[in-house]
Amino acid sequence: MSATPVRVALLGCGSVGSQVVRLLREQSADLEARVGAPVELVGVAVRRLDARREVEVPEGLLTTDAAGLVASGVDVVVEVIGGIEPARSLILSALEHGASVVTANKALLAEDGATLFAAADKAGRDLYFEASVAGAIPILRPLRESLAGDRVRRVLGIVNGTTNFILDKMDTSGAGFTEALEEAQALGYAEADPTADVEGFDAAAKAAILASLAFHTRVVATDVHREGISEVSAADVASARQMGSVVKLLAICDLVEGPDGPAVSARVHPAMIPRSHPLASVREAYNAVFVESDAAGQLMFYGPGAGGSPTASAVLGDLVTVARNRLQDVRGVGESTYADLGVLPMGATTTRYHVAIDVEDKAGVLAAVAQEFAKQDVSIQTVRQQGRGEDAQLVVVSHRATDEALSATVAALREMSEVREVTSVMRVEGDSE
Amino acid sequence: MSATPVRVALLGCGSVGSQVVRLLREQSADLEARVGAPVELVGVAVRRLDARREVEVPEGLLTTDAAGLVASGVDVVVEVIGGIEPARSLILSALEHGASVVTANKALLAEDGATLFAAADKAGRDLYFEASVAGAIPILRPLRESLAGDRVRRVLGIVNGTTNFILDKMDTSGAGFTEALEEAQALGYAEADPTADVEGFDAAAKAAILASLAFHTRVVATDVHREGISEVSAADVASARQMGSVVKLLAICDLVEGPDGPAVSARVHPAMIPRSHPLASVREAYNAVFVESDAAGQLMFYGPGAGGSPTASAVLGDLVTVARNRLQDVRGVGESTYADLGVLPMGATTTRYHVAIDVEDKAGVLAAVAQEFAKQDVSIQTVRQQGRGEDAQLVVVSHRATDEALSATVAALREMSEVREVTSVMRVEGDSE
């Protein structure tokens, strides 16, 4: 047991930061025992000293000089500001000044992780970020360490609580997207500007981080095909229900066989999954991540995906690890990109489509529709036809094909004279086909 | 990248060991990249050289001299023999000779972990054991590391696949215990002598390991209250079904307020849990572990709880970590028992009971039964009464009370003249009461 404390600087004191302050205080005896030295909070950088906070920060710790704090020779810097700047500059400065870093900043990691990891390597310090994906759920450490002797094939997750809350509302109440979003905003599950969540930017950043760790390859946010949920309609949700499925916004990272050998596919989009799939029962703002690997098989990790206190739990877990490493003067597991696989574009990724079409109810329509699938070499798994007065509805579920072929098929269907409207197009995931 | 290989000795080449051999070979390039040095299998100790194996072990590696192998100066010893001896002596010798150890041996850890951890401390080497609990599911590392900044309150898990398979069969088919056990044996889910599984010894060892890690306190197998499933009847399972519940064998580790302050309670017994609880949907031989902590809230970890290949995945994950540590000449997280809490006896632990009773159908019986609960200061949550000809059936679910008071109540009920038979007694877990 060392008597010299591990000195910690905190950047940001919002919903996560204030819970970090609280846990550092409430758990201080336990943290000391687990780290092997006292953990001392020596400064908290904030934008405004007089802002209302959820926690009382001890006298003298608050400062608006974040740059001065990270350069003051602390042992660990915890960054929970979020966003690209000034977070990036502060983390880089912290590493240059010899601090280890714990961050929850998914956007920065997914945009420019390479710069951060290079700086950590150069400084010989740790850069840990469990809190950046799926809040309190331990998922990065299992991927990096527990599965280090295995080959991960797929990571399939619900990693954005806001969109899951909205889709869950739409499923249970029949509400449309706008109505469900408003309820999420009223309850504090969605922000006033919900773009980052509903358009899938947040989930895409997390998918990039998950794919990087799972496949030992650098994957950035722009490598991830991204579609949000703002176009998901009540009709899509109802159509899923008829199929015994539910619509979820999924982050999907696959190890695939590309034209030049193994490659990574990473995508975020809404998809129908069968209600019997474990991810289907993930309700409200919870998160869950499925991992499939060669030897372990299917694993699932479930828990609260956001919130100040759960995210702070993940931050503190990392803090204990990097503090222990400091005391031993070693580094934990760093970035691993040795596999250096290519990233497959979405068009070349194989998926399955569910397509609902309003057509004229006359002979030959089904054959004509089937012909459009065949032209793109897409084979059909099931067709359900329901007459409705002069119209009929066709619901087609395809077998696996490239996304390019599938979307070309849908475009061709829209041009058909017999097709009144393509009412729902949604990818299908999570069943064995 | 080091050119000097990490030299690994394997003890045991059964269903787990043979998969370790296979993965070491198939993943050798990845393992080298992840560890930072080649990982070389230098010997495999077996009882009989000519036994049939699932894997071809390279010429010259097999030996019956396990003692010689562990003393030969290898870097890491992987022990997958199981049982107390010779596993304990071999692990102690390995540590004395400077090797780090990876083991899947739950029975040994739960019986005499203290001796092993002391030897690891003395040698300054790692002792890792992720594979000892819940197969491939990363649960020990998250408890030890990811949640190191949090306070764990409860670990509630299905950690024995054999008993879960049997109970699942009983639930879905209405089979009795004996019939379901025979099916499990025929399918290879249960051993010819199923005692360790069905009487809860295996789950109790895992509960001891989980409680030790969760509460930073040494908990051994005999500290764990243990009841198996051989007394679970078709009537119990049917009674659970009527309640909207299902019977599962649970390992339950709680941080509780004892008479002298915080204490640990650890127990393994069948219990009814509501079908809406995530653990209720854990089918067949799968495992799942719920963790509740102050800051993170509820987390769940799910996956295959046994099997050669999943268990080997967990072994290899540990192997990568201890190999990396060897290269850096450091130790990972060791035993943590600083909290040193007392272990509460089962009688003092609070639980809830579901009791089904056949009684004479006459006035005053319900009052008399309720009186027996009141005598022990146990309050009743619900009573359901069903007339059946001359008899009636009462189903009583209690509020929380000490197990002592609850079992005394049941004993008193059995003595009542109005009671023909107590047909089902089962604890209730997993609902919010």
UniProtKB/TrEMBL annotation, chains A, B:
Question: Which metal ions or organic cofactors does this protein require, according to UniProt?
Answer: a metal cation
Pathway involvement of the protein, from the record: Amino-acid biosynthesis; L-threonine biosynthesis; L-threonine from L-aspartate: step 3/5; Amino-acid biosynthesis; L-methionine biosynthesis via de novo pathway; L-homoserine from L-aspartate: step 3/3
Q: Catalyzes what? A: L-homoserine + NADP(+) = L-aspartate 4-semialdehyde + NADPH + H(+); L-homoserine + NAD(+) = L-aspartate 4-semialdehyde + NADH + H(+)
Q: Which CDD domains match?
A: ACT_HSDH-Hom
Q: What is its EC number?
A: 1.1.1.3
Could you tell me one molecular function GO term of this UniProt entry? homoserine dehydrogenase activity
- Does the keyword section mention Oxidoreductase? yes
Give the SUPFAM superfamilies listed for this entry.
ACT-like (SSF55021), Glyceraldehyde-3-phosphate dehydrogenase-like, C-terminal domain (SSF55347), NAD(P)-binding Rossmann-fold domains (SSF51735)
Fetch the InterPro entries from UniProt: ACT-like_dom_sf, ACT_dom, Asp/hSer_DH_NAD-bd, HDH, HDH_cat, HDH_CS, NAD(P)-bd_dom_sf
Q: From the UniProt record, list the coiled-coil ranges.
A: none
Q: Which UniProt keywords apply?
A: Amino-acid biosynthesis, Methionine biosynthesis, NADP, Oxidoreductase, Sodium, Threonine biosynthesis
Top-level taxon of origin: Bacteria
Q: Where is the ACT domain?
A: 354-427
Q: Name one Pfam family in it.
A: NAD_binding_3
Query: So what does this one do?
Result: Catalyzes the conversion of L-aspartate-beta-semialdehyde (L-Asa) to L-homoserine (L-Hse), the third step in the biosynthesis of threonine and methionine from aspartate.
Which family does the record assign? Belongs to the homoserine dehydrogenase family.
Q: Give the protein's recorded name.
A: Homoserine dehydrogenase
Organism, scientific name: Nocardioides marmoribigeumensis
